[in-house]
Amino acid sequence: MSMLRRQFNSILSGVLSPIVVRRKGEKTEKEFYSKLENIEKSQTELLLDIIRENQDTDFGKKYGFSDINTVSDYRAKLPVLEYEAIRPYIEEQDRTGKPVLLAREPEFFAVTSGTTGKPKFIPVHDRALVDHKSSTNLFIYSILKARPKLLSGKILAIVSPAVEGHMEDSGKPFGSTSGHMYESLSSFVKNKYVVPAPVFSVSDYDLKYELIMLLAMMEKNVTYFTTANPSTISKLVKMIPSLIDIAIETLETGKYPNLSKLPLDVQVEMSKRIFVDKKRASELRVLKETRSELRIQDLWPNLQAVATWTGGSCSIFLDQLKGQFSEQTLLRDPGYLSSEFRGSLPLNSDTNAGVPTILATFYEFVQADKWDSGEKEFLMLHELEDQEKYYVFVTTSYGLYRYNMNDIVQVEGSFEGKVPQLRFVQKGKGVTSITGEKLYENQVIATVHKVEREFGVDNQFFVVECDPETARYSLYYELSPRVKEERLDDKGLAALKDLSAFEKRLDEVLREINMEYDAKRSSDRVKPIRLALLKRGSYEDFKRFYLAAGQREGQFKIVALQYKKDIKFDFAPSIRWDSALTEAANLDLVAASRHASRLSLTTSEVSNG
Fold first, then answer.
1. C-beta of residue 532 within 8 angstroms of C-beta of residue 472
2. 569-597 burial, b for 16+ CB within 10 Å, e for fewer?
3. How far apart are CA 479 and CA 473, in angstroms?
């Protein structure tokens, strides 16, 4: 494609895209507002519509869908279900093509990790796709209203592959819903996107991100950046120094040096996007020569908005991105989102709480403490209380019936006084207990952040391990790259000023936050928290391990609090200082680190540091 043709298409799509998005967004918004007038009525109508559509399936007949006329009937007929309860129905429908679970035939399957080790395959049919697209339209439209130039330039979107494999019986593809929607875009709309879909299927982790960031650096006018996980943004930022020269060379010559290493379909798509652009090459060269550290705002000065998770354990990575975005760039959380369903849509940028997707999902809730204690008092949206925490159970048009998400959400006010806004707090498994103290993941995150502020440091990532056998919690902690190695001064490991003091303060703050933890610590039923400082690069090793084990990259999240038995990664080779070890053993760890030659340590210095 010629440069002139590219410029023409870019200008045309920049004019038409906002018009199309605004038209679709306004239509969805109108329907959404109509359902807000009586949320109990609209939720009941949605449930009964789903039931009626699927009452003649094998599943519907088993559970008497034809006799369900109220929410109470539904609850009486169906128990709460986990995925393993519906797996046989999904597999039989895929094998036979008959309406076993669904009246509609799935087009593909969204895949996610399962608690049993077997992947979960979520059927996605035409109605589900329409619902997904409507939610996306409403979300983008809400940003467009706040930033009218949002779609004036290019979109940098990072998604999981559309196809990761095929079902054994039917041969239908499985992958990510976002990837499927990305691939199904019209050729005209695809012109708006920086990265071609085949790139997301590149199996080599480093090469894939090299391609993504190379294409992004070559494009100055990126106005919208969307990727669910901020750890992805953090990784791309770290790649800038190593890719700047390759980007300049590619723009000057119109040739990418690693093109021949790529799969053929990726070579074809990359060739369409690689061309001589001496102006952009010159801009990057000037940036390289005049900036000590290139930031996102330097590369894409017109960036209007970034959509990425901001809550829970993802806040760890957002802290690493401070200063990357200009003041004009809006940060918008995409909401409570999983492979099973989209749970909320934040329509404002000052919160990660969002409106429930009431056009597509029937919701039930149980107050978190009650569910944990065995009580099952189910509530609908209109019955929720502000600031209360709840477990979530959903019913969708694509076969999830009273489905236990094992997620905890908190109500954060209401949207225009008509529907609760939901904020994802943590997975249900983000709760641990050694002897009844019930420590929550959000408490752990808050504790680490508070102590970091007091000590003037921050992290690359961390995981807290709960070990009931030793009655101890352990914090595995990697320092942020912003904490320079010069802080490892001649006193020894002084990056945290005093590791033992940092460790002691962690324990103090946990006791302040959680009274049950404090009580168990006072009686010595729970031992003091252990701190293990990790080597640089441990996060990448940690992530690679889980990706190699089959976890999908687009769904990769750090669960900041886990039982020891659930952590498959071996932290031992990554530890550079461990409060549980002797001084001599810690000296050996430090000596083995890559900075050992610069650190002149003595046993007494480590003891004092």
1. no
2. bebeebbbbbbeeeeeebbebbeebeeee
3. 19
pLDDT at 228: 87
In the chain, the amino acid numbered 231 is S
Report field, pTM of the whole predicted structure over 0.90:
no
Query: What phi and psi values does residue 221 have, to the nearest 5 degrees?
Result: -95, 55
Return the number of other C-beta atoms located less than 10 Å from residue 436's C-beta.
Answer: 11
CA distances from 410 to 18, 35, 180, 337, 380 (A): 33, 22, 30, 15, 14
CB-based burial of residue 387 (10 Å sphere; 0-12 exposed, 13-18 middle, 19+ buried)?
A: exposed
Domain locations in the chain?
Answer: 431-608
- Which residue, among 146, 282, 281, has the nearest Cα to 224 in the 3D structure? 146
Separation CA 416–CA 586 (nearest Å)? 57
CA R_g for the chain: 26
Maximum CA extent, the chain: 78
Looking at the DSSP assignment, which residues form a beta bridge with residue 363?
394
List the chain residues with pLDDT less than 50.
Answer: 1-4, 8, 11-12, 15, 115-116, 487-493, 495-497, 594-609
Q: Hey, is 407 helix, strand or coil? A: strand
Structure tokens at 400: 């999830």
Distance CA 133, CA 128 (A): 9
**Token digits for 412?**
């954060």
Strands 472-479 and 530-534: parallel
pLDDT in tens, 156-183: 999 989 999 999 999 999 999 999 999 9
Q: Which residues contact 6 (CB under 8 A, 6 or more apart)?
A: 275
Measure CA of the first residue to CA of the last residue in the chain; give whole Å.
61
List, in sequence order, the alpha helices (H) in 184-320: 187-190, 205-218, 230-253, 264-273, 278-290, 296-299, 315-320
Of the candidates 569, 565, 563, 560, which has an alpha carbon nearest to the alpha carbon of residue 542?
569
Write down the H helix ranges in 274-399.
Answer: 278-290, 296-299, 315-320, 368-372
Dist CA 421 CA 352 (whole Å):
9
Burial of 127 (0-12, 13-18, 19+ CB in 10 A): middle
CA distance 31 to 361: 14
289: buried, middle or exposed (CB in 10 Å: 19+, 13-18, 0-12)?
exposed
Residues 57, 397: Cα–Cα separation, whole Å: 13
Looking at residue 595, its pLDDT comes to 43
> Tell me: domain 431-608, CATH 3.30.300.30, correct?
yes
- Which one-letter amino acid corresponds to residue 203? S
Q: With the C-alpha atoms ordered 145, 151, 152, 153, is the resulting torsion angle positive or negative?
A: positive
**Backbone region of residue 416 per phi and psi (left: phi > 0; alpha: psi in -120 to 50; beta: other values):** left
- Distance between CA 440 and CA 4 in Å, rounded? 56
